[in-house]
Amino acid sequence: MVMDRIALTLLIIGGLNWGSVGLFQFDLVAFACGGSGSMISRVIYTLVGLSAVWCVSLLFRDRDHEPAEERR
Prior knowledge:
By secondary structure, the chain is mostly helical. The chain contains three helices and no strands.
């Protein structure tokens, strides 16, 4: 559950970054981390990509069998 929220948060950040690239040609991650080729930018891009792979599993999970307390 926590991992799902972390992955979704990273995907939202990545989606907003791609939106800014598409609309304004401004890469916020590259701007904040010293260019798109810097190590920290590459780590962030990799984490967003791994989050996307993780979130694919959300499409195939059966959430009907979870206890009511966990569905909040």
